[in-house]
Design a protein that fits this description.
Shape: globular
Strand content: over 45%
Helix content: under 10%
Order of helices and strands: EEEE
Structural class: mainly beta
Number of helices: 0
Mean pLDDT: 86
Largest sheet: 4 strands, antiparallel
Low-confidence stretches: none
Length: 75
């Protein structure tokens, strides 16, 4: 669960071989499904401050899986 409080953030992910970009401003937020879903978040020109809440099943080792940007978003 992510909520922006200052600045903007652009969330990128890919679906059906297309890069999808959505920009969120203060007071707006989104839910990322996690667990292997490759995506990236890019701060706006003035940076971004946001709050994140992670909801993980018991025994989870980490919420981060290192990966490059979705190939469709790397152009």
């Amino acid at each position: 669960l992510v909520e922006g409080v200052k600045g903007s953030v652009t969330y990128e992910d890919a679906k059906a071989n297309v890069c999808r970009q959505t920009t969120y401003n203060p007071g707006e937020g989104f839910v990322d499904r996690g667990f292997g879903h490759v995506h990236r978040a890019i701060a706006g020109p003035d940076g971004v401050d946001f709050y994140v809440v992670y909801v993980l099943p018991p025994g989870s080792e980490t919420h981060v899986i290192p990966a490059g940007a979705p190939p469709e978003c790397s152009a």
